[in-house]
Structures are given as structure tokens and as C-alpha cells.
Specification:
Strand content: 5-15%
Number of helices: 10
Strand order of the largest sheet: 2-1-3-4-5-6
CATH architecture: 3-Layer(aba) Sandwich
Helix content: 40-55%
Shape: globular
Radius of gyration: 19 Å
Largest sheet: 6 strands, parallel
Oligomer: single chain
Low-confidence stretches: none
Mean pLDDT: 94
Number of strands: 6
CATH class: Alpha Beta
């Protein structure tokens, strides 16, 4: 059901690859709530994914390729976006993450450092570049909202999450640090959403993902938060109802982050011990 929470607002959605992407579902929801958008992804992702299908479902939204690690690409994207809309925008979703070490199944303790630096650049420093370039070009209206997608491995050890854990920690730190400066200068708010393990194309590529998902499902009082609900949360964070929320890492995980132990897991342990 649409409540037109974003009527008249305009934004950029980074990272939609296919129907399983949180960015994909968020794009559909923000348009359903009255927003106009531009879709962007890295050139290789544009070739591999289905973003043109998504654009057609989003009132033929423009698709503008941009490598978010490239300042030149971001400047081109932002200038073309402002030209398209005839002015500034109101929100940005950064749904970008990639680890060569994860893709190549290189164990965390044997990390390839060139790969590690690439992980940090793509998955975290790109967030800083997205923000820095937006500030430089005065892309975002006052009281606008920028979101990055994170995961609780930024705070806790999930061994198979590899160097993406460091990337998510850095992402959240950038939201706090840049959020202060963007708030002071332009009244733009910057937050991250720490989402439940979600069976996206990228997430499912992490070793042990099924175990992550099952464990979180049994730990969370409400169960794992689906991608569709994360998209709804993004709508709220882009809306005027959250104008005073900034520099936060917001857990959207069914209660997992604050649950010490659950009845379901305790019962499984008793059963395993023959009790």
C-alpha cells in the first residue's frame, strides 16, 4: 500500500543488480511512494544484471553507469542527474559491496592485501567518495538523507565474513564522521542500516551464508528481516518523518543484535546434549 511518503522527492539508487537485491526492492518501493529516481551501478554490473528491466518498472528511470570508486564517474553521474531533474535531489542509497578475497575463497588469516584494499575501496571508501562528491557539487537538498547498507559483522566476529567485516566497520564510521560535517553544513543526514543476513546475489556468495541465515533466524525474536521490509525501512529513512536521525547505525534484524540467547537455540543445545 502506498502512502505517498516520498511524493515530490528525487534520488539516486546505487547497486541494484537483480530482483533479489535490496537496492532493487528499494527502488520499486520509493517509486511506489511517489519518488523519482536515477539508477546507477558499475559498468560491469550493468552488463551482468537486469537494471534496464528495473528502470522500466520505475517509470523508465534513467540508468547512468558509475564506478563509485571513481570521483570522475560520480561527478558525471551527479551532474547528469541534476540536469535530468532540473535541480538537486533528496536521497541516496549506497548498496555497494564486493570482496575479491571472498570471491576467491581466500581465508581471512591468509588475506591477499591487494584484494583487501580493493574490498575497502569498493565497499566502504566509495561511501566517502559518494558523500564527498555530493557535498562538493551541492547535490542534496537540506534535510536530505543518505543511507549505506551494513551488517552486524561490523561489531561481532563472523569468521566466514572475511574482510567484509572491516569494510562494514569502516562504512559505519564514515557515516558517523561525514554525517557530522554534512549535518553542520547542509542539514543532510547520513545513516547506515545493519540488515539481517539476506539471500541476495552478493550475500549468498559468502561462505557459510546458509548457517548465518539459519542461526540469525533462530536467534531473532521476530525472525530475519526480509529484503522487502528493509526497503520499507529505507522509505521511512528517506521520508520527512526521520528528519532528526543522523550518524546512526540502525539495526534492522528482527531483534538479533540485542538477543543473548533464544529458546530455539537453547532447545537445540539441550537436544544435541541428549537432555
Amino acid at each position: 500500500m502506498s502512502h505517498q511518503l516520498l511524493k515530490g522527492k528525487k534520488g539516486i539508487i546505487f547497486g541494484a543488480l537483480d530482483e533479489r537485491s535490496i537496492a532493487w526492492k528499494t527502488a520499486l518501493r520509493v517509486v511506489d511512494e511517489g519518488a523519482e529516481i536515477v539508477l546507477s551501478n558499475a559498468p560491469i554490473a550493468l552488463r551482468m544484471g537486469k537494471i534496464n528491466e528495473l528502470a522500466a518498472q520505475c517509470n523508465n528511470a534513467p540508468v547512468i553507469g558509475a564506478d563509485a570508486t571513481s570521483i570522475a564517474d560520480l561527478e558525471n553521474l551527479y551532474l547528469k542527474t541534476m540536469e535530468h531533474f532540473g535541480g538537486k535531489i533528496d536521497f541516496v542509497l549506497h548498496s555497494i559491496g564486493m570482496s575479491p578475497n571472498v570471491r576467491k575463497s581466500i581465508h581471512y588469516t591468509e588475506t591477499n592485501y591487494d584484494n583487501f584494499l580493493k574490498t575497502l575501496d569498493v565497499s566502504a571508501l566509495s561511501f566517502h567518495k559518494v558523500l564527498q562528491t555530493a557535498l562538493k557539487l551541492d547535490l542534496i537538498n537540506e534535510w536530505g538523507s543518505v543511507l549505506g547498507l551494513s551488517y552486524i559483522a561490523a561489531q561481532r566476529a563472523f569468521p566466514s565474513y572475511n574482510d567484509m567485516a572491516e569494510a562494514k566497520s569502516l562504512l559505519e564510521s564514515i557515516a558517523r564522521s561525514f554525517g557530522y560535517h554534512y549535518g553542520i553544513r547542509k542539514k543532510v543526514r547520513v545513516n547506515t542500516i545493519s540488515q539481517s543476513p539476506t539471500p541476495t546475489t552478493a550475500g549468498s556468495g559468502v561462505s557459510g551464508f546458509d548457517e548465518f541465515f539459519s542461526f540469525a533466524q533462530k536467534m531473532s525474536p521476530l525472525g530475519n528481516a526480509p529484503a522487502e521490509d528493509c526497503a520499507n525501512y529505507c522509505v521511512l529513512m528517506f521520508s520527512d518523518y526521520t528528519r532528526m536521525v543522523t550518524m546512526q547505525n540502525l539495526f534492522h534484524d528482527g531483534g538479533f543484535s540485542f538477543t543473548g540467547v533464544s529458546y530455539d537455540l537453547a532447545a537445540e543445545l539441550r537436544k544435541a546434549q541428549g537432555l
